[in-house]
Amino acid sequence: ETLRSHRTLRTEHALRTDCANIALRACCAGVALRSFCAGGAVGSNEVAKSAPDGHTWLLGFNGPVAFAPFLYSKLPYNPLKDLAPVVLLTSQPNVLAVTANLPVSTVGELVALMKASPGKYNYASVGNGSSSHLTMEYFKALTGTYAVHIPFNGGPPAALSTASGDTQILATVPTLILPQVKAGRMKALAVTGSAPYSLTPELSTVAQSGVKELARFEAIAWNGVLAPAGTPRAAIERINSAINAAMQDPAVQQRLKTAGLDAVGGTPEAFGKLIADEAAKWEPIIQRSGAKLD
Fold first, then answer.
1. Cα–Cα distance, 9 to 61 (Å, whole number)
2. How confident is the model over 179-228, as pLDDT tens digits?
């Protein structure tokens, strides 16, 4: 999504309020947008090609910012060169889950089952090239296991497929998994972040599973604001400061948490490092998977 500011003078309080509202609308929309993680390239290209005048902003996420250079043969923009990071808004782990009748209750048991029968089991994803897809490809690469990828057009059909047993494994955002777990149709095994997740404190992380190959496993989804490269530093710092203030508002944090998102914030430099690190991490996983979107 592109966010265009009003060309009028605003008080800092009004700017913080605007940024809080934008962050809430954008991040909550991001839950749906991540369901089509290969999407967002058109809007990202529009922002990348826009005048760097401080009036055009992008809500970016993993797909068009970190994954797209390796999913498209001819991406018309370079996220690392054509976009300037402003601030990281939110992050969110996936939940690794299985259909209720699969005879596993831990990550270690799932790895053993997959190793014992390569290709016997299917895993659903919310779309080809999505965080849901690539999380499982990362899992397979580290553990030396194989399961068949069944991509769906969005989160609800992917969750329904695993809940019904048509597919056996799914890694996706908690808001899609947890209702099925509560209904007894799926079992949640772990979260994919580096630390336990606030909405599922009973779940350990994949890295804490005791599987040696997964000791450093982490796969998160995130949203952040970017601008065209060359945007004046003063404009970037002003928006960064306002959004960081909004992220500290308890009401904003609670609204985001209701949507399954953790408020983050931080400096433009920290967000830029995250983007570069994510691109370097996921490039070999995407290449190994053979995933392409064109």
1. 29
2. 999 999 999 999 999 999 988 999 999 999 999 999 999 999 999 999 99
